Amino acid sequence: MKILVCISKTPDTTAKIAFTDNNTKFDVNGVQWIINPYDEWYALVRAIELKEADASTVIHLITVGGPDADPIIRKALALGGDEAIRVNAESSDSYFIAMQIAAIVKQGAYDLVLAGKETIDYNGSSIGGMISELSDYPYVALATKFELAGTKATITREIEGGEEVCEAALPLTVSCQKGMAEARIPNMRGIMAARTKPLKVVEPITADTLTRVAGFVLPPAKAGVKLVPADNVEELVRLLHEEAKAI
After folding, report:
1. What is the tens place of the pLDDT at every residue in 185-206?
2. Which residues pair with 154 in a beta bridge?
3. CA pair distance 25, 216, nearest whole angstrom
4. Which pLDDT value is given to residue 149?
5. What is the DSSP letter of 154?
6. Are 152 and 162 in contact (CB under 8 A)?
7. Contact, 115 vs 43, CB < 8 A?
């Protein structure tokens, strides 16, 4: 079985967020980059677990980005990917990115495409569905469990008020979220092996860019905390009535 895992480069959750060019571009200065957690902890680790259950499984990783994404994809290789592909293009447009990945899916004839449910920077949650449509694969979103018996997959996903269990035949695209797998840390053997694993750089196919960033807006600064003495219940009630509901 061939699995393709989508990997995104995202800012660390502790990074200080700032913008340049009249708030139209993200300021990358001093930013620490990481693998998008949904891609790493759930999509990639579940792929690794599937390979551990079937040694004939091959895991390929794919990212769309410039050379600065190489350390991120190398870390993913250290976790357990067999080889990686980087499409040499910079874009924040979901359709453009999905087109690049779908082209690789078609060329590689993958049995399973796994992606995180969203990236933690843009929170678009659209890439998986677009890849599925462009590749003509069935799609199951927001999966919390994935089991495979031969070529039939059983996927559990969260729905309003409960869970839904789906069955689908490979090939298949699945977006993954919490519950799919437990996070892992690369060991020294994996880190050393990742240095020699193939990382193929390919040029992008021609694709439209359907969206662009018009601007970014930071959330308003948090208001200061007001402390009310425990014996001043009247003041607390007044604040709840007059100020709290305005927040």
Report:
1. 888 888 888 888 999 999 999 9
2. 147, 167
3. 8
4. 94
5. E
6. no
7. yes
For tokens 């890849």, the residue is 131
Q: Which two tokens stand for residue 15?
A: 């990074």
- The residue among 124, 32, 103, 17 whose CA lies nearest residue 71 is 32
> By three-state DSSP, how is residue 7 classified?
coil
> Where are the domains positioned within the chain?
2-219
Scan for tokens 């061939």, then name that residue: 2
Structure-block tokens of residue 203: 């040029």
Residue 21: count other Cβ atoms within 10 Å of its Cβ.
9
| Domain 2-219, architecture per CATH | 3-Layer(aba) Sandwich (3.40)
Place of tokens 């996070």: 183
What are 224's two structure tokens?
């200061």
Q: Which residue has the tokens 């060329």?
A: 107
Task: Name which of 169, 195, 198, 185 is nearest 48 in CA terms.
Answer: 185
